[in-house]
Amino acid sequence: MTDKPRDYCGIFGIQNHPDAALLTYYGLHSLQHRGQESAGITTSYFDEEEERWIMPTHRDFGLVLNVFDDQNIFKEELKGRAAIGHNRYSTSGASKNPANIQPFRVHYRKGNIAIGHNGNLANAKQLRDRFREEGVLFQSTSDTELILHLISHSQKDTQLEQVLEALEQVEGAYSLVMLTDDKLIAVRDPNGFRPLALGKVDGSYCVASETCAFDIIDAEYIRDVEPGEVLVMDQESDADSEPESYFLEPEHGTDTSQCIFEYVYFSRPDSKIFGENVDKVRRNLGKYLAKEHPIDEMLTKETKHKPIVISVPDSSNTAALGYVHENQKLGRECKFEIGLIRNHYVGRTFISPGQKQREQKVRTKFNTVQGVIEGRSVIIVDDSIVRGTTSRYLVDMIRKSNPAEVHFLVSSPPIISPCYYGMDFPTPEELMANRYDRNIDDMAEEIGVDSLCYLSPDGLVNAVKEANVSPKGYCTACFTEDYPVPVNFGVEKEANEII
Amino acid sequence: MTDKPRDYCGIFGIQNHPDAALLTYYGLHSLQHRGQESAGITTSYFDEEEERWIMPTHRDFGLVLNVFDDQNIFKEELKGRAAIGHNRYSTSGASKNPANIQPFRVHYRKGNIAIGHNGNLANAKQLRDRFREEGVLFQSTSDTELILHLISHSQKDTQLEQVLEALEQVEGAYSLVMLTDDKLIAVRDPNGFRPLALGKVDGSYCVASETCAFDIIDAEYIRDVEPGEVLVMDQESDADSEPESYFLEPEHGTDTSQCIFEYVYFSRPDSKIFGENVDKVRRNLGKYLAKEHPIDEMLTKETKHKPIVISVPDSSNTAALGYVHENQKLGRECKFEIGLIRNHYVGRTFISPGQKQREQKVRTKFNTVQGVIEGRSVIIVDDSIVRGTTSRYLVDMIRKSNPAEVHFLVSSPPIISPCYYGMDFPTPEELMANRYDRNIDDMAEEIGVDSLCYLSPDGLVNAVKEANVSPKGYCTACFTEDYPVPVNFGVEKEANEII
Amino acid sequence: MTDKPRDYCGIFGIQNHPDAALLTYYGLHSLQHRGQESAGITTSYFDEEEERWIMPTHRDFGLVLNVFDDQNIFKEELKGRAAIGHNRYSTSGASKNPANIQPFRVHYRKGNIAIGHNGNLANAKQLRDRFREEGVLFQSTSDTELILHLISHSQKDTQLEQVLEALEQVEGAYSLVMLTDDKLIAVRDPNGFRPLALGKVDGSYCVASETCAFDIIDAEYIRDVEPGEVLVMDQESDADSEPESYFLEPEHGTDTSQCIFEYVYFSRPDSKIFGENVDKVRRNLGKYLAKEHPIDEMLTKETKHKPIVISVPDSSNTAALGYVHENQKLGRECKFEIGLIRNHYVGRTFISPGQKQREQKVRTKFNTVQGVIEGRSVIIVDDSIVRGTTSRYLVDMIRKSNPAEVHFLVSSPPIISPCYYGMDFPTPEELMANRYDRNIDDMAEEIGVDSLCYLSPDGLVNAVKEANVSPKGYCTACFTEDYPVPVNFGVEKEANEII
Amino acid sequence: MTDKPRDYCGIFGIQNHPDAALLTYYGLHSLQHRGQESAGITTSYFDEEEERWIMPTHRDFGLVLNVFDDQNIFKEELKGRAAIGHNRYSTSGASKNPANIQPFRVHYRKGNIAIGHNGNLANAKQLRDRFREEGVLFQSTSDTELILHLISHSQKDTQLEQVLEALEQVEGAYSLVMLTDDKLIAVRDPNGFRPLALGKVDGSYCVASETCAFDIIDAEYIRDVEPGEVLVMDQESDADSEPESYFLEPEHGTDTSQCIFEYVYFSRPDSKIFGENVDKVRRNLGKYLAKEHPIDEMLTKETKHKPIVISVPDSSNTAALGYVHENQKLGRECKFEIGLIRNHYVGRTFISPGQKQREQKVRTKFNTVQGVIEGRSVIIVDDSIVRGTTSRYLVDMIRKSNPAEVHFLVSSPPIISPCYYGMDFPTPEELMANRYDRNIDDMAEEIGVDSLCYLSPDGLVNAVKEANVSPKGYCTACFTEDYPVPVNFGVEKEANEII
Question: Which segments cross the bilayer (chains A, B, C, D) (predicted)?
Answer without folding.
Answer: none
